Automatic annotation (TrEMBL):
Function: Catalyzes the phosphorylation of pyruvate to phosphoenolpyruvate.
Domain of life: Bacteria
Enzyme category, top tier: transferase
SUPFAM superfamilies listed in its UniProt record: Glutathione synthetase ATP-binding domain-like
Catalysed reactions listed for this entry: pyruvate + ATP + H2O = phosphoenolpyruvate + AMP + phosphate + 2 H(+)
Recorded family membership: Belongs to the PEP-utilizing enzyme family.
EC numbers for this chain: 2.7.9.2
Any Pfam family the entry gives: PPDK_N
Protein name: Phosphoenolpyruvate synthase
Length: 970
């Protein structure tokens, strides 16, 4: 009996253990997708039954009652829905009543649960209820009054904390549009969703849907009515009812904002100067009838709310202020289509007030608006120069990019999560942008761009699409190839060197391509951008709307060029001129490739070096330029550079002389045999793809073997000894970076930036040992190989040295270029910084500045990366969520950078071993406002692309001092 009981107990434990393991294991997207399809057909959707949730924590059946008053009746989730919350942190069919406020705010997961609620609300609106398709009629599952009461309680809790409001103003204000708390609904989103549902069922409605989504105006109501009448014979009864619902929603949307509703919100405020000002302006608004003064008044009110919100201490009044702010943005959005500027002065006024409304709404942070507001304020003079007007355009374009970047940074993670099992989720961000003041702002900025193009003859010509004023060239160059449009995450995409890619954002690690254009440029000094600049790969920034329009051209062969001044041309292959066709025959005959110098390399140095003992003259001899130049900098700026160990070329070569397991040759012989065989294949005329495939397969074998190579005993012993003596702590107790430093980097015509591996913040002794092997192996990755093959004549002679330096857990880090990249001015400085370690070099949307010789720091772009890396003492990286309410760099940091850049320009050209006279590419960071220097290299640009006569020909001379009257008609 005891045995049977014990067996049963063990069996029960085993079942429980396996069950808990299954619950903890992540559910695959395919399985989630199947569940969602099942929920759509289930009359209870994601719910299993109804219960009373009582104040004492008990849960009782629906026909019973709680022991005390205050219970909430709602549905319970199906067991697998609860399990999905635990395994995948995915919350389906969320019911707010009885949900814990802190759990719903979900700060530990960057507020994912709140954002999922907003995203699901969108999915329900465009997909007939989505997972509640039939459960919409499950009576008692969700109680509207309980949801609203919970919403009021939630916002009362949320807005009681000033820091939360400062850090998450945009998200909180957006949440007020979606979470029930006073009976309001998001009519703009409802209008777009209903039009989308109709067009999906009846494609002939697509043109009107595009109009409603892109530039809605009250005249659209009659257009929809006329469409319904014209197509009445072809419409089902269900479609006719959907048209009626859309028309009703559109009438509600285009109703003038009820001023009395605004007064009700203001009445809730505490007596204050803000309340008095808002009341006065509401009285003024009631008397105004034309769109221009209504927009300027509403914009001023919204901006006052943004600036004065925290001065209001009554939480219910804070809710009222944010609700009022949302209503004011809605007013501006509606009136914007009615304000049709007739001349340049009017247009500049309109863009200014739309931009200020975007700042009031949180799409642009207050500090960012203050940086640019003076530059976009309507001029007082009667005329403006072309140069000054172009500066207006650049700043206004930036505002649109920053605003859309805020939406993406806030919601992209949760959209990526849901799009894995629900493709419709990808439309959420676009829907959010189109329902905001960013839509009319972008339209007005595009109109200004078109006006400037007409005045100067500086026209983009990109496949005949609309709104070309948003297009802006970054890197000069020209390309010919198939056009590929990439949506979503590009990091796992396999790219081809003969294709032109359009990305929503550039990938962090990109292999060579013919050309690129991105909605988000990342930053001008990321590794991808620098490599593109080296090779003359044309690169431009486009808008979301441009990307959508260019989808129809995907798969076509196109010619693509970006001029030195940013003019962009893209045309179908059949429309190329003879001059454009000739560019590619010339390129084929005059391929610019260079040879890695190996004459002076010293492989006899097989001992580890102290960073202090090498300098720039050792570059390419003992080590690569990273270590040699950093050693030089350690001598020049000892307090700004950490201590370090250098593992020279000779130690790498010494290890590769060992026999490669199972091959009967050394690692080094295997490498050289690979290149020799490839050369024989080439001489036999075998196809280039076959040769490349062979080489890549062989290099993969070599790379994996190097990762497992046995370190020589004397090297391991010396490594531990010098780690202790030079870095000051035993190996295994101090976190370090292990950086690849090859002889192919920082050549006169090729930088090689970011091609090889850096091991971040390794502490454990075995991780450091493995990190050394991994970094040695990294030059043989496919990406590194393909970039080298583009430029190097002898890629087999690539030797990696290693730089091992202590980790500095910097507060922020980035790149300094001692030149104005966009302007070409050597008296200026370009900066790009991101929070945490490894900032700005991986294609991140970084905080970027142009430091002018006049002393002005021009903000080119604020940071929009939602996460950043910290370097804990325990090793590895810790990811932290970012907020954007404060700039990364402070004024003292910028002063320090200016002074440091001046020192570099004076000292570096006169330093023995430094062959470059500048400009320089510098990696640095700040810890507690102290500047730390990590790397310096020459800044290399592609001279062929810069000097191309064709590229000059597509950029007409701009009459920069030409005066344009502000009264000029558009």
């Amino acid at each position: 009996m005891m045995t049977i009981t014990l067996k049963r107990a063990l069996l029960f434990f085993l079942v429980f253990f396996l069950s808990s393991q299954l619950h903890a294991q992540k559910v695959e997207n395919g399985s989630i997708q199947e569940r969602i399809e099942a929920y759509k057909q289930d009359v209870r959707g994601p719910y299993k039954d109804l219960r009373w949730f009582c104040p004492d924590g008990s849960v009782v059946p629906p026909k019973e009652r709680c022991p005390e008053r205050g219970g909430k009746q709602r549905a319970r989730y199906k067991d697998e829905v609860v399990a999905l919350q635990k395994s995948n942190h995915i919350f389906l069919g969320q019911i707010l009543a009885t949900t814990d406020h802190q759990s719903f705010w979900d700060s530990g997961h960057n507020h994912s649960r709140l954002k999922q609620y907003q995203l699901e609300k969108y999915l329900r609106s465009i997909d007939n209820g989505w997972i509640l398709r039939k459960a919409q009629y499950y009576r008692g599952a969700i109680q509207a009054e309980d949801e609203q009461a919970w919403g009021r309680e939630f916002f009362t809790w949320l807005l009681s904390d000033d820091e939360r409001i400062q850090q998450h103003y945009f998200l909180i204000r957006q949440a007020l549009k979606d979470l029930p708390h006073k009976g309001d609904s998001n009519v703009a989103q409802q209008m777009r969703s209903q039009s989308q549902v109709i067009s999906d069922q009846y494609p002939a409605f697509m043109d009107l849907r595009v109009k409603i989504h892109g530039q809605p105006e009250s005249s659209d109501i009659q257009d929809v009515i006329s469409f319904k009448q014209k197509h009445a014979d072809k419409l089902s009864a269900k479609l006719k009812a959907q048209f009626d619902e859309l028309i009703s929603t559109m009438r509600e949307f285009f109703q003038p904002v009820d001023v009395n509703l605004l007064r009700k919100e203001v009445a809730l405020l505490s007596p204050s100067q803000l309340k008095a000002s808002l009341s006065s302006q509401i009285d003024k608004l009631e008397q105004l009838t034309s769109p221009r003064p209504r927009i300027t008044t509403a914009s001023s009110m919204a901006f006052e709310i943004r600036e004065g919100l925290l001065e209001e201490k009554k939480v219910s009044a804070r809710i009222a202020l944010l609700d009022l702010s949302n209503k004011l943005e809605e007013l501006v959005y509606k009136e914007a289509t009615s304000w049709q500027p007739k001349n340049l002065e009017n247009l500049l006024h309109k863009t200014y007030y739309l931009g200020r409304t975007a700042a009031a709404a949180g799409y642009i942070e207050l500090w960012e608006w203050r940086q640019v507001s003076d530059h976009v304020a309507p001029p007082a003079a009667e005329t403006i120069t072309v140069n000054n007007l172009s500066n207006y355009l650049q700043t206004l374009r930036s505002q649109v990019e920053w605003g859309t970047g805020t939406v993406k940074a806030t919601y992209n993670e949760v959209v990526s999560l849901f799009s894995g099992f629900e493709p419709l989720a990808t439309g959420f961000i676009d829907d959010r942008i189109r329902s905001s003041v960013l839509l009319p702002l972008g339209e007005s900025v595009g109109r200004l761009g078109d006006f400037i193009a007409q005045q100067t003859g500086l026209n983009n010509s990109m496949m005949g699409i609309a709104n070309q004023g948003h297009i802006r060239g970054l890197n000069p160059g020209f390309a010919f190839g198939e056009l590929v449009v990439v949506e979503g995450n590009p990091d796992d995409l396999e790219v081809a060197p003969d294709k032109i890619y359009l990305f929503e954002r550039p990938p962090a690690d990109m292999k060579p391509v013919a050309g690129i254009a991105t909605v988000s440029e990342g930053n001008l000094v990321s590794h991808v951008q620098l490599l593109a600049r080296n090779l003359g790969i044309p690169n431009a920034v486009i808008s979301n709307t441009n990307l959508e329009e260019l989808k129809s051209h995907a798969g076509k062969m196109v010619f693509y060029a970006v001029s030195n001044r940013g003019t962009v041309v893209m045309k179908p292959a059949e429309k190329m001129t003879e001059e454009e066709r000739a560019l590619f025959t010339i390129t084929a005959r005059n391929e610019e490739r260079i040879r890695v110098p190996i004459d002076s390399i010293r492989l006899d140095q097989t001992s580890i070096l102290n960073l202090r003992d090498i300098n720039a003259r050792d570059s390419g001899k003992l080590s690569g330029p990273k270590a040699a130049n950093l050693g030089q900098l350690k001598q020049m700026f000892p307090d700004k550079v950490v201590e370090g160990l250098v593992v020279p070329f000779g130690i790498f070569r010494q290890h590769l002389e060992q026999e490669m397991p199972g091959r009967n040759v050394s690692y080094w012989q295997f490498l050289n045999n690979t290149y020799a065989t490839a050369e024989q294949m080439r001489s036999r005329g075998e196809p280039a793809p076959e040769i490349e495939k062979y080489q890549l397969n062989q290099l993969e074998v070599l790379r994996e073997a190097i990762k497992k190579i046995e370190l020589l005993p004397h090297f391991r012993k010396e490594l531990e000894e010098k780690f202790q003596s030079i870095l000051g702590q035993p190996m295994g107790e101090l976190p370090v970076f292990i950086r690849s430093d090859t002889n192919m980097e920082d050549l006169k015509e090729f930088t090689g930036a970011g091609l090889n591996l850096t091991v971040f913040n390794a502490v454990d002794k075995q991780k450091i040992i493995q990190g050394i092997k991994d970094v040695w192996a990294s030059p043989y990755t496919e990406r590194s190989y393909k970039w080298r093959q583009q430029y190097l004549l002898n890629p087999e002679n690539v030797y990696p040295s290693l730089l091992i330096i202590p980790s500095v857990d910097v507060d922020y880090s980035g790149v300094l270029i001692t030149k104005g990249i966009g302007t070409g001015n050597n008296d200026e400085i370009t900066l790009a910084f991101s929070r945490g370690a490894g900032g700005a070099v991986d294609g991140q949307v970084a905080e970027s500045y142009l430091l002018k010789s006049s002393g002005e720091a021009v903000l080119l772009s604020p940071a929009r990366e939602p996460y950043y890396n910290r370097l804990p003492l325990t090793g590895g990286t810790a990811r932290q969520a970012a907020t954007f309410e404060q700039p990364i760099l402070n004024e003292q940091n910028i002063r320090d950078i200016r002074a440091f850049s001046d020192s570099i320009k004076k000292i570096m050209p006169n330093t023995p071993g430094i062959e470059s006279e500048g400009p320089y590419d510098v990696e640095l960071g700040f810890k507690d406002n102290k500047l730390w220097l990590f790397q310096i290299r020459p800044f290399v640009e592609n001279k062929r692309a810069q000097g191309s006569a064709y590229l000059e020909s597509i950029t007409p001379d701009i009459p920069g001092n030409k005066q344009i009257k502000l009264s000029t008609s558009l």
